[in-house]
Each structure stands twice: as structure tokens, then as C-alpha cells.
Amino acid sequence: MRAYLRRMSPSDSKQSLRPCQNVGGHPADGANPFSFATFSWMNDIMSSHVVPQLSSREGVERNVETLRLALEGGKPVGTALWSLVRKRVYFTTFVYLSSIVLGFIGPTLLMRRVLTFTASSEAGKWEGLTWVGLLILCEFGRVLLFTLTWALSYRTALRLRAATMGLVYRKLLRVHSPLGEAEASKMINVIGTDCGRIYDAVVLGQVAIAGPVVLILSAIYIVWELGWFSLLGMIVFPLAYPLQYLLARGSGSFRRRGMEAQDSRISILTQSLHNIKFLKMFGWEPHFHRLVAKFRAREVTCLRGSGLLSSASTVLGPTLPHVGVIITFLIYLNSGTLTPAQCFTILFVFSLVGYSVRAVNQLADIRYNTKISTQRLQSLLRLPEVGDCHNHWLSSDRLDPDAAVQLENATLTIARRVEEADADESKLLDKGHHDVGSFHLNSLTIVIKRGSIVGVCGCVGSGKSTLLEGIAGCIMPTEGYLHVVGRVAYVPQTPWLFKGTIRENIVFGEPFDSIRYYNTVDACCLTPDFGSLPLGDLTEIDGNGSNLSGGQRSRVALARAVYSFNRDIFVWDDPFSSLDAKVAITIWDRVVKGLLRQYTLVVSTHLPQFLEQCDQVVLLQGGTIALSGTHQELILRQTTSPHKNYAQLLHSQSSHISLEEKVESFSDIDACSTLRKKRDSPHQGPASNEGSIPWSVVNLWVGGAGGILVMLALLFVFAISIGSTAFSSWWLKYWFRTPSFPPIMLNNATDGSTPPSQIIQQPEEIISADQDDNRFVMYRNVYAAMIGVIFITALFRAVFFAITCVKASKSIHEKMSLHLFRSRLKVVDRLGFGHLVNLFSRDIGEVDWSLPTTLEQFLQNVFIILAIFCLVSIVFPIFLAPLAILSLIFVWVRSIYKSAIRVLKRVETEAKTPIFSKMGETIQGLATIRSYGKQTLLTRSFEESVDDFQAVAYTSSGAIRWLAIRLDCLAVAVTGLTAILVLLFHGSVSAAAAGLALAYAAQLSGVFQFTVRLASETEAKFVSVERIHKFLMIPTEEGRDIYPNNSNNANYSSSDDDPLLSTWPFSGRIKYDAVTLTYSSDARPALNQVSFEVMPGQKVGVVGRTGCGKTSLGNALFRLNELWSGEIFLDGVNIATVPVKRLRESLCVVPQEPAVFPVSVRHNLDPGEEHGDAKLWEVLRKVGLVDVVESLDTEMGFSLGQQQLLCVARALLRNAKVVFLDEAISSVDAETGAVIDRLLATEFEDATVFLVAHRMSALSRCDVILLLEDGQVRDFGPTETVTKKSEFIANFDHFERIPL
């Protein structure tokens, strides 16, 4: 079902979604030529607000395939894109040039005839009516062809955007894994920004190419009117071209560097969002906020440079025509005589020349931006892809006939790629790539028989996951052979889930077989979980399963593998480390020994009870296969070193069992109450109002820019700048006055058609140096002085506006970044990854780049229109009466338009969120998607999202053009009305005044509709500000401020004011007093009247089954969620009275899922730079990573176990009095687990430790055991007492009886 084809009622407060049947195809496809050209096919849509689907001709599937064929043979992306649209662009260009010719003939040749008629007292009435009629018809023809140009361009641009978006996504599915964070962020940026630029290049580029044509036509006309010598006045335009080019090139260069900085910023923000819980618990928000601010500062520098150059280029548009016409007239008047008919037609022609300059500037800007975008797209297409597995297959004579998997001298390599930079720049900038932390598995030779169970074990970093990814087809061998006979179902070490229902995640595109499905669910022990969920297996999963516990995510991933059809080989990467004892054994018995007993299973595990049931055990050591054989064979042969290592591995694992599943989400299991109907919403972020943009939203931008006084000053500067150009034209009209003698009243009519009393013979209106007029020099000097006035006011306006916009953008992003790091975890979870990335990429990009450009053009045009109306009304005061009628028509038309465009623009913005979400999900689940061969399924889903977005975008663009042509017709009516007034007041109004009014009224035709469209676009750009504003309005953590010197923490005592807090906590004594914690008002409490007390330095083993409240215990201690009731005391201080930052910096956590960021080792350990190198190397030595880390200032590629050791190193640096270890050793091998156990006993000897335990060896070091059940304390007491009780023994009995 399409998610974004919707019926929108302006009277409703919400949008109702429904699929569109599109009976008869898209309305534009069946429209007649006139309806297509005038967008009359939009009439029903504007009234009914139904968004139809696009035809397949504009769909992703068709166009991406066409582009793929065009790229064959190694063609550059730009060349391939051009070949797709070349013929359509040629035809559209011909239509547009025809419009330009009509637009030039009407206001020049025909308007000159009208002005000549005005200056003549002998011309007949019908002659004037003829010229006025031809002028109006010519203008209407121009409007029709101009609108047809847009209609054709939209369809062409849609095809290119569909093709490029689909191409990037398909490349993502083929790219060689693992995909670096910088590359992943770049792909998201290309989808969000560069594909849009390619769209704009088609839509706006064809309009911009008219610039040179207009310039040539204008030059010919000026020579015809004033002679060759007058072309000297046009020298300002050729001189402006290099300037415009340099301004555009400089602006584009700044923008390119700004995009590189944006890539880096988004990369850090992406990692921060993935690990936001850890950042909050560790109190590292200030450090990562500063890191984001560092990249943002470089981005703002580029933004400021680009803004200044772009604004300077914008002000040249209305400035150069007036400067050019002043120079032309001053030169011409040295030897010639100027008449009103010449003067004001030339004045209009120079306005066309000014348009050509702006068009050339726009063309240069578009060309440069398109070049950058195609280069970025080309760089992505050059990323290495997963090779064809057939190239690494063995020949039939070398393949074992019973083999399911066979490796022969195979080398598997995972090269972590980061981007190089200069010494003073981040490694994340797009300056090239180098490999960091490359890992190799060498000389792999092994045969896995069909139907066998193979266990893979080894130390952390030995390559277990790499071997399994190679078998699953995620990576190809660089040398040797890897032959897989059959289809693979892969379960990665970190389970991957996508946004959808649990059932959809399990079925994963396979046909639904109810018997097979429920057998699978039961075998994977999911039936009890479904009973506790609001909608059972139809409960929607949040991004990456964040509202499920770790064990539930693992079992859903296992169920997906078991349910999958036609699979021969099952590859599981350590799925049992997150499952409790009974669940792990049940799944092994029901799945491995039951449903999959006839299939091949390759499983990574260290649990002896499972290894001993394997037909073959593979021990990885030193980057190769050290041992291979049955469990009994390897146990009995303990004479060589590898066999001893295997025995030691098992010995340390003899008591190992997972008592629980991994950490529950910060929103816990009860957060699953999301209703199924939310799936139809493009995001669960803040909803947008459907009315006008509220003042509070505008005030966010205005306040960031400096406040209302700054905005008033900005408007005044605009008025002075535009007013100076209008004054230069008015001065010409004033100059044409003839003061020597008054008008002469004629006694007889020339043709008897006009009463003698109304016939006035005006003196000849000319400007000439030969006139006997002592004021000529004064007029000329004032007119010449206007050049300096125009330039000075324009330059001042450009600088003022650019600085104001950069200040506003900088302020808004700073507020967003602070708000993100201050937001509650449940808010981040509810908004979702896609929505937040959209905010910080697309929406802030709109505020940075698009909004200033649109707003400047809008304000400029508003003041131009005001100048036009003022000048015409001064000449013809009666003009105000019909203008009022036309205004009512305008208000009526725009009311129809506004009822749809607001919602369309908001929906268009929101419709991109699923695209970002699916990109993020695909990047995280690339290995799973490939192993299941679901590229086609994911591609189809992504392409449907793009098609939905395109349908809304096309309808939104159609609505804009629907309004534009109607406004253009009103503008033509204004021109025609002015021309008629010239006829009616023939003889009563001077030819100069009539020429001034008619020349300015003719300019209204293009300016008026463009200004109204700019108003809508400005409002649409402010939708991004509105989304940001609504995000900023979401309440943050109470009293939370990531900087202690800010005033937001005024309600709390600082450590400087409170002597107690200056040394607090001093011992680590913790007391939970009747603590009740719930994640929502309608959910059962995660903690229910929990009370216990821990003495300083005690080690507390926290045990219990999934959903019992273990993680909630830590959430309450770190104040990730505020208590419903009860209190927690730390060293006698109620933690609710302590600033959140102060509290969390006093505690320490080692999370179950290690948080490692794509920055240097130093920044991963000590982002605040509080410790010296010696201390950092010391903690690395203690955790056993000193031999792995090459340098503190480089980025390393760590395995999952090594990442966990890095997290322990952080805890050693923190040296806190209270440490919370949440399943910290569930994903590491026995050797590494022993290291962590040793560190617990030595380095944390004086600290109070909460250990969410999963090993008997760890529990044996605990002083007390806390057993939780259903959010309540089931038992609490000394370890030796609790471990002898029946309810505790029941959890461990299975594993205690397993022999080594």
C-alpha cells in the first residue's frame, strides 16, 4: 500500500491517508495540450486535494534501469544522465525560446508603437487600440509557452531524480561491506541533497539558458534604436559576466566545502544518535556537542562565504539594468536626442538584460552545483562492490561431493575505511581514503559437510564473525576459493530489525504459512513474549528494535532464519550470549535438534554444552584455523598449544550461562504500545499544523538573526536599495518635463471624432544637450550620481542580509544540537533515526542554503512590486480602482491554492523521512539483506517510498504552476489595463509619464507570479523551521543542561555552592526507597516499590529474567527516566536534587552494546582531554589492547569484543564510586571475560558495582545478589545465602551439571 497518497481536507486538523487507485492513469497523462500547458488538469486536485500516483514513466524502476543501461561502458554519470533527457531538453528549450521571443517583441516593438501613439496628437483611436490588442495577445502567448516549459521540465526532472535515487540505493546493496560511517553518511547526503540538485538543474537550468538569447536580442534592439555607439552602455553586462562567474564559482566552492563539513557533522550525529543512551549515561554530551560544533563551525565559515558571494550576485540583478541604462542614456545624450518612446522601451529592454545576467549567474551556479553532485555520485559508484561468488567457486573435480561449504586457501579481509584529511582537518573529510585496522583471515581450508553442525570458537578478534560473513556471502575472498552449495540464512552478532511489525520482520518477504510461522515462533520461545505485547506479533518495532530487549531481538532474528524458505545452510553468529539458560537450551533442542536437524548449521559460540553436540568444532587463532575436529577429539588431544587453548577456553566457560537477555530498551518492553495504524504515518515526529506558519516559528528565525529591530533595519535597507533604482527611472520622467512653454489648446479637431475642448497639443517631449535648458547639467549630474547610490545601497544590503541569515542559521543549529543532547531518551526513540537525520540534514540544509536565497529574492521582489504600483498609481490614480478588483480575484485564486499547498509542502517534507529511514536500516542490515537475498524486496520497498515522495512533489510543483499561470494572466491584465489607460488619457498625460507607467507595468508580468511563488516557497522553506521549532518545543530532561555554567540549572545547587556536593559521592552507599518507575501512564510499572540498600564497596549481582526490571534499575539510577514515586539516595543525597550532569559524571556504566565512535582512540577514551597519554596507555594495557592500538590519534577498527574492552577502559579512566555493568561480558569470549572479571576484583575494589550477571564466576565475586521478578525484589541478600535458594538454583541448574 502506498503510504503517501492521501486525501487532504483543509478543514481537518490531520491528514487522512488512503491508497489512490489512479483509475485511468495520472490526470496529466490524459490531459489535452491546452490543459497540460496551463495545468488545468490540476483543477480537480486543487479542490478535492487528492494526490494521484505518477505513471510508470516517472517511476524509479523504469528510470533507474534506463540509467543503468546508459552507464554501461564506463560512461561518466553526467554523460549518462544527459543521454536520458537530451531529446526532451531540446524540445523544452525550443518551447522556452519561443516564449522568450514573444516576450521580447511585445514590450519592445509593440509597446514602442503605443508610446509613439501617445506622443502623437494626430494618431487615430483605432490605431492605438490595434497596438494595445496585439500587445495583450503577445503577452498571453508568452505566458502560455512559458508555463508549458515548466510542465515539460517537471516530468523530465522527476525521471532524473527517480533514476539517481534508485541508483544510489542499488549501489548501496552491492557495495563491499563493511560500509564506513563517512561513506554511509555521504550516501544519505547524496539522496537528500545531490539528487535534489540534479532535479533543480533540469527544472531551473532550461530557464537559465535564455540569458544569452535575451542579451543578443536586447543588443540588436538597442543598436536599432540608438545606434552602435550606444552599446558602450551595455559594457557593464559583459564586465558583469566574469564577476558573476567568479561569484558563482566562489559561492559553489564554499558550498562544496560546506557539504564536506556537513558530511562529517552528519557522520558524528549519526553515531551519536545510535549511542545516545551511552552518551547520556556517561555524561559525554558536552564533548560530542563540541565535536559537532567543531564541524559546524567549519560549515558556518563556508556558509558565510557562500552567503556573501551569493547575496552580492543576487543584488547585481536589479542593479545592473539601471546602471546600464543610465550609462547608455548619458553617452547617447552627448550627440543624440532621446524621446519617451525610445527611453522607456530601452528601460524595459535593460530590465530584460538584467534578467539575462541573473540567468547567467543562475546557470553558472546550477552548472557548478550539478558538477559537484555528479562528482559525488560518481565517487559513490566507484566504491568497491561485492564480487560474484562464482568467481571463487571450486571446479567440480575439486569440490567435495558431500560439502555444503568448502574453503581452500581462502583469504578473507575486512578493511575499515576512513577518509584522509590534512593535518588540521578531521579524518572524516572527503579527501581520499585509507584502510585502518584491516583484518585478515589467511589460508582457510576446511570442508563443512551437508547436514552437519559446526561450532566456531576463538578469542575476541580472532575472526569468527569474518568467517561467518564470508560463508554468508557478505564478503568475498581476496584469494583462494570459497564454495557454498545452497542458500544461506544468516543471523549476525548484532540482530538487525527493520521498522515494521514483528511478524513482518520474521516473515521478511516470504509467503505467509501460518503452520510454519507458529511452529517457528514456538520453537524460538517467542509465544510468551507475544502475549505480553499490546498487539502480539502485530506490534510495531521501533527503529532497529529499540523497544525490544536484546534477547527478544536475537530471537526474532533467529525466527527469521528458521522461517525462511528454501534455505540449506544456517549461519548464526553467537546468538545464545543474550539468552537465558532455559531459553537457550529450549531453542537448541527445538530448532537445532528439531526443525533444522536435517540442515547444515554453522554457529559461533563458546558454550561447552553446545560445542559438545557439534559434529565439528573450528578454533580460530592468529588469523587462521588453528584446530578442526569434534569436541571430544579436541578435548582428548591436549598436548599441543592450540589444543590447550581450546581446553582453557572451555574451562573458563564451564560456568557460563546467560541468565537474561540483553538490556531492555530505554523505553522498555511496554513502549511497544505503538499502534499498528502508525505505520501509515511517514514519521512519529511532531505533527505540523495545517494553518499558516505561526509567528512563533518565524520568531525562531528572527530571534536567531538578532531580533525584531534587526529585521526592521533589514527591511529599511531593502526599501532604500530598491527605492534608489525606482528613483532613477522617476528622475528620467521628471527630466522629460518641458518648462519653456505650456501646452497649446487646439481650436479644431483633426478628424471630428474628439471635442475641440479635449484636444491638447503637448509640446515635444525630448531630452537633448542642444536644448536651451540651463537645468540640463543639473539633471544629468543627479542622474549620473544615481550610479554610486545604487551600488552603495546594493552592496550594503548584500552584506547586511548575508550576515543576518548566517547568524540565524548558526543560532538555530546551536539550539537544535543542544536540544538533541538534552532530550529524553524516549523522545529520541519516538522521533526515530530517520526523522532526526532529516532534521539535521535536510531541514537545517534548507535553513542554511535554500531559505536565505528564497527570502532575499522574495523581499527584493516585494519592494519591486511596491515600486511598480506606486509609480503606475502616481501616473494614473484611477488605476487603483481596477487594481482593487484584480486584487479580489488574486485573493480568491490564492485562497484555493493555499488550502492545498501548505499541506502538500509539509507532506512533501515528511515524505522524505521514510527514504532516510530505509537508507539507515539498509546500511545497518546490509549483511542480513544480502545473505537472505532480499535485495529485490528492499529495493521495491525503497522505490515505492521514492515514488510516493515524487507523487507528492509533482503535485506540489503542479499546484505552484497552477497558481503561477493564473497570476501571470492577472499581471498581463495589469499591463493591458495600463495600456488602455494610456489610450483613455491620450493627451492628458505626458508621453514620459505614460511610458514610465507602461514600462514598469510590463515588468510586473514576470515579477508578480514569481513573487507570489516565492512567497509560497518561503513559507514552504519555513516548514523546515517549523519542524525544527516543534522539535525544540519537546520538553527536555528536567533542569538538564549539558553545560554547568548555563542558567538552565538554576533550580539545582552547584558543587561550588554546596560543600557536600564538591566531594560527593565519597563512599558509594546506595539506597532505593519504594522506587516505582513506569515508562507510560498506561503501562505496568517496570519497577514496583523496589527497596534495598547497598553498602559502600559492595558488589551487587543483579539477576532475573527478561522484563524483570534489571535495566530499569540502571535507568532509574542514572535518571534516564524520572521516578513515578519513591526516592534513590547516593551517600545520603537524594539524586533527584542533584543536577543531572553532576550525577551522571559521578557514575560509570559499561553498556551491553559497546559504543565506539568513528574518531580517534584518544577521543573514544577521553573526549574531554582530561588525562595524559601515560594514563591512556595504562588503561589500554590493563584491558589488553595496548598491542592492538597503533596510536592514540588514529581511528582503529575493533572487533565487537575489543570494543567492549575499550568500554571497560573508559570505566577505568572514570574511577567512579558507583559502576553499573549491564551485560558487559555477554558478547566476549572466556579469555576476555576473565580479564574483565579480574579487573572487577582489582581495579573496582573500592567501588560499588552493580553487575547484571551472566557468569557464575562473576557472581561468586559479588557480595550480595539482587533477584528481580516482574519489577519487584524477589530476593536480596548475601551471595552465599541467595544462591542456595531454590528459585535461584532453578536458573543455574542446567549449566552447573554440564561436564567439561
List the helices and strands and how they pair.
Blueprint: E1 6-7, E2 16-17, H1 33-38, H2 43-48, H3 60-71, H4 77-119, H5 125-174, H6 181-208, H7 210-226, H8 236-274, H9 276-282, H10 285-332, E3 337-338, H11 340-381, E4 403-419, E5 433-449, E6 453-458, H12 464-472, E7 479-484, E8 488-491, E9 500-501, H13 502-507, H14 514-523, H15 527-532, E10 540-541, H16 550-563, E11 569-573, H17 581-595, E12 600-604, H18 608-611, E13 616-621, E14 624-629, H19 631-636, H20 641-652, H21 695-705, H22 708-735, E15 744-745, E16 760-761, E17 767-768, H23 776-822, H24 825-831, H25 833-875, H26 880-910, H27 913-924, H28 926-931, H29 935-984, H30 991-1033, H31 1059-1062, E18 1070-1077, E19 1087-1094, E20 1099-1103, H32 1110-1117, E21 1125-1130, E22 1133-1134, H33 1140-1146, E23 1147-1150, H34 1161-1165, H35 1173-1183, H36 1200-1214, E24 1218-1222, H37 1230-1242, E25 1248-1252, H38 1256-1260, E26 1264-1269, E27 1272-1278, H39 1279-1282, H40 1286-1296
Parallel strand pairs: 6-12, 6-13, 8-11, 11-12, 20-25, 20-26, 23-24, 24-25
Antiparallel strand pairs: 1-2, 3-17, 4-5, 4-7, 9-10, 13-14, 15-16, 18-19, 18-21, 21-22, 26-27
Main location: membrane
Domain ABC transporter: 418-647, 1070-1295
GO molecular function: ABC-type transporter activity; ATP binding; ATP hydrolysis activity
